[in-house]
Request: fold
Amino acid sequence: MSVSLLSIGISGLQANQKQLATTGHNISNATTAGYTRQEVVTHTANAQYTGAGYIGAGVEVTQIRRITDEFLTAEIRDSTQSFNSLESYETNVEQIDRLMADERTGLTPALAEFFAAAQSSADNPAYIPTRQVFIGQAQSLADRFNTIHEKLNSQNEVINGQVLALTDEINVLAEGIAELNQSIAFSTGNLDYKAPNDLLDKRDELVRELSEKINIEVIDNDGIYDISIGNGQSLVLKFDTGRLDTIAGDTDPSRKDVTFTSPTEQLNLTEKITGGQLGGLLTFRAQMLDTSMNALGRVAIAISSELNEQHRLGLDLDGNFGEDIFQDLNAPELTRDRVQASSENQMPNDRILSVEITDNTLLTTSDYELKFTGPKDFEYKVTRISDDTVVKEGAFMGSFPESIEFEGLKLTLEAGSFQAKDVFRIQPLRHAAAQFKAVIAEPSQVALAMPVKASTSLGNQGSGVIDQGVMISKDTAMFKEGNDLSPPLIVVFESDNRYSIFDNTDPLNPKSLNPPLEHLNFVPGVSNAIMPEDDGSTLLQSFRGGLPVRPFYQDVNDEVTTPTNGFNPERIYISRTDPITKVVTQDPVLSLPGGLPANETAARLNTIEGVNARASNQVVMTNFTSGTPPYAPDNPMDIYINGVEITQTNFGPSQSDFLAGFEEIVPDPITPDFIANRINHNVELQNLGFTAKSDGETVTIFQHIGLDIEIEMKGDRSDPSLSVPGDSFEVGNGELINLTNVGESTRGLLSKNAGFNFDDAGPYLYEFNLPGYGTKQIEITGSFATGDEVMQAIHEQINEQIPYPADIKVSITNKGNLSFQTFQTLKGWSTNDSEKITIGGKLDVVLADGLTMNTEPPFGNLFSGTPEALPIFPGFQFNINGRPEEGDQFTIDFNHDGSSDNRNALQMVAIELKDVLNKQNGGQTLNESYSELVSKVGTRTRQIQINKEAAQSVLEQNTNDRDAVSGVNLDEEAAKLIRFETAYNAAAQVIKIAQSLFDTLISTFR
Reply:
């Protein structure tokens, strides 16, 4: 019995000693990071059986356990990851917020000062100091862009360093956890498992520290932690670890990418890493830093593009077109830097690509990925990275260079062996702010004036007013001679609702343009844009209706016949090229019967989408003669226009054929002025769209809707034997046939007023196109002393090439260019018989962008095979308001003295308020776009701050919850010390009593 009491006392003493030691251990580690409170677990020792029953044998210590809750531990890891991610994000985004929003470092003040300087220059364009200020502000604006970009790029470099440091720390922590896994496994390797509490605490603390760095997933496999990151990659697998490294970005060498290496794989995990400080850095870089640099670059590109484009449309103080204000951000060396090839692309590394900004209004702030998807080498897909949206896909043809366009960008494959699975990162905006530089240096180079100007004729009778216009492009034929308008223009109103625009090189003899801009509609009383729009349209023109080989003779006894206009049957083919796919499709063939009037041809063409045809017609009549036969009375000449007799006489008081003011007396001989007066006052002809104009020698008859013009005349017949002239006049179609020099040039020396030696330095070869008969060629030889001899020689050469009888009238311009017109003579036969001519009209056909037209047969009276379609947009636009009257004129010429002109300056100032960005979302000005960037950064900063505060609160709550369970409470532990000390002393007293009993027993037996 005494031995039993001793063992019981000893067990109590030992148990309480362990309790005291454990409590002391808790107190000692109360401030140790990651320490988990421990407690001693005891149970009663096995009792001894006696006859009286079971007698207790004392106490046994079964284990020293940690007071822990794995759920709370996991919660702390999760909240630690979230908090540290947000804190890392916040620290960096606050720097951008301060940089963008601060007036001392932001872009808004610099933009305002630049446009204020532009306005000052506009206020006094001839003042050199304001021009100098403009240049200075352009440089200041460039400096501000460069500075902001430099700050953002420096932040990127800091992030690269932080990423490198964090990956090293993660590797160290992972190795420490693997080592602790091994130590814990060794400590628990015996069959009598006892947890190594302090090792477990150390491992949990390392895991918690790891969760500060990166988002992790922890799996407990029988007390051994396996830790995965990213997309399930094993950073710690039992006793082994993977490794994180940093490399230059796969498609962006300025960015550090994070790679994972294990014995079985090597992966780029940059886009898979979330949470913790590393995840926060990478998320910030992708979401805010890259986007901010792109958004800043977008503003830089818009300013450079818009200001440079407008400035190039102006004139500087020396009368030259303006150059760039800022560096051209589409320079070839910059466009190639916008594409980065993946390091995983197959060799050889020979691909050359470039990206050009084509429309800044369509730019987004995203990067793009070009991937050759396969299985064929040239099948591709372009993905917008910001939202993973495919914006373009298809297949390249494989012929270089080859381009595709999307969202304001033009991607060009220039050369190389492109293969399936090739990947390229497209960063069109990333470095634009750094490349934004002012390149204008001299005040005289600032182009504030507009190249074209308009003026109003002093003789105008109407109230029409022309504005000073707007310059849109100098890349047109109008500016082919550089600093001049080629040709100068004159706008002539044919009536109050119709005008034509002519070449005004010779103000005394305006000529049709090529392509012509004639008989255009005008709406009186409102503002009318008088020039064609900049929509890519082209214009082709038909030939005018040709003259017949001879006039048609109408015998009074024969059936009345109207001769046809001579047009051949034609087939018209319209082709369409898709602007995106470049696929060409063919419209149904339009077949035209022979002799169809031009107005009906126009009506059929106008049923075709994208085709706008205008028909018109004209005839010239000249050289009116009158003769008196010796054997018959002198009968007046009768002339009919489209069946209307315009030479009628004997009007009654109630006549209604002519309007008031017509000439009642028919002159003899008939004059051009009389013909013009009768046509312009005839009611029927006016309703049909006829007008006429006389210069005293020639009358020109206009048919404004393209009807055939039918001319018939009756008159006295000539008698050659008696040298008595009959009634006659000449008729032409007004077509000026130009001769093209294809041999030796006359160097502008050819003149109708001087002789010329064609034997010197010849041959002098000329070509001309004779409608219906193809191309003809002449060679002029001989030496001529006078201009009349020159004109006669040219006349003879041309006349030999005309395959039908015709009168030829040759002209030479003041620049020495040759042209001619052909005429037929209508002559009298009698007062009953007549001669007739029908002349067909011409067509001006405007084709929308992407349309072409071909005709068959290759030669005809209307079109000829593939008519030349020329652009009709002149590069500028003017508006006329009010009510011009017939004969009113407006001239448009080059602005040769524009030192005080500020129109281009005002256009540059207007860019500040122009929607030049984000067209897909309604448009934004420069300030609005930058303000949106500042707002987004500020909003995101505040969101992150709020989220971080919430995450911090959650982390603190989780920590408190964990400490409530696992933390050391010193008051509680002190109370335990007293309790365990008392128990320890009591156990010692039991031993002392047992010892006393044992001593008594021994002394009894002595």
The radius of gyration is 49 Å.
